[in-house]
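Researcher: Here's the sequence for the chain we discussed earlier.
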Amino acid sequence: MSNYILGGGITGLAAGIAAKLPVFEPVATPGGICSSYYVRPNTQERLSKTPSDEEGLSL
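Model: Thanks. This is the structure I predict for it:
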């Protein structure tokens, strides 16, 4: 049986470093609810970079 950390948020990354275990993250940008991201008005999609048309809100 292997040990690993699921989730690359603040807690997952800290646990991975402390326990020297691999961290697996299902999305392209780690950070969980503590990550910075952009959204377009009236959508739920998280964007890791400012949209090219600059119609994004930084959260």
